[in-house]
Description:
Layout: H1 15-23, E1 27-30, E2 34-40, E3 47-51, H2 60-76, E4 83-89, H3 98-130
Parallel strand pairs: 3-4
Antiparallel strand pairs: 1-2, 2-4
Helix pairs in contact: 2-3
Amino acid sequence: MKALTFPKSVRLLKPADYGKVFDDVQLKVPHRNFLILAAPNNLGHARVGLIFSKKNLRHAVQRNRIKRQVRETFRLQQDLPSLDIIVLGRQGLNTLENPDVRSSLNDIWRRVKKKYRQLAKTPSDANAQGNE
């Protein structure tokens, strides 16, 4: 059985990593409580970075609880494409219970995969039409 860990290799660690995503956002997945920004990477696996401000989640306990939920749901996603993903928190997160947060995040990960497939399909379709 594979150990389910959250190693440094699947995290955005440096400000430069975050900057690359913010400068080259190719995938946006909005949600009432979250915003996902993503850019492709060449690593062969997804990485995640978390941004939760005091403005939206006033207490450290709330921020840490949400971060734990995001990390756990991300860790369980075995088939995410090679993307650098930033998860931003929006207002209203502090009112959600853990099952609601998990359900929202699972829906978001599903939408990220779907949008990535659509994004990957689009350029090849444009090239095929240009060759005719």
